[in-house]
Design brief:
52% helix; alpha+beta; 2 domains; Gyrase A, domain 2
Length: 157
């Protein structure tokens, strides 16, 4: 378990931490709030497991002492927090979706084959509406392009 915490913002009376590797782990953040709340000079602690964020409100003149106490509870690093890019989050999300599709279909389908079927269905719907040249041809092109990409990525037998 990697509970490395980053200090992302500090202002008089407040500290904001980020624990990105624990995002979504509700028990971890519940426990963290319970461990931080009783520390001396801390007035309130709020955590958001969805974002991995922790807000610590404290007496205004005690910031360094509070930081020292927080360090005794959580693995606070001096490294600068660099949030993941939107592209890397999208790739991660699509990878998880691909795993879900493969698991639910017992390996019978994947994200790319699902997208292929959706694009083909949309293309056929456009053809049925008489929109053959613009929307249908584009959708067919994208669907066929998916098969080309899949073939170039397939492992050699």
């Amino acid at each position: 378990m990697n509970d490395k915490a980053y200090l992302v913002h500090k202002a008089p009376g407040r500290l904001r931490l980020r624990v990105p590797e624990m995002r979504g782990d509700i028990p971890f953040f519940r426990d963290l709030v319970a461990r931080l709340s009783p520390l001396e000079d801390i007035e309130a602690v709020r955590a958001n497991p969805d974002t991995g964020g922790v807000l610590i409100l404290h007496r205004r003149d005690t910031q360094q002492a509070v930081l020292n106490r927080v360090t005794s509870v959580v693995n606070l690093t001096d490294e600068e927090y660099v949030p993941p890019s939107a592209f890397s989050r999208a790739v991660t999300g699509l990878g998880k979706l691909d795993e879900v599709i493969a698991r639910e279909t017992k390996g019978g389908s994947s994200l790319s084959s699902t997208i292929f079927l959706v694009l083909m269905g949309m293309a056929l719907a456009q053809i049925a509406r008489g929109q053959v040249m613009a929307p249908a041809s584009s959708l067919l092109w994208y669907a066929l392009d998916l098969t080309r990409v899949k073939r170039t990525r397939a492992p050699a037998d």
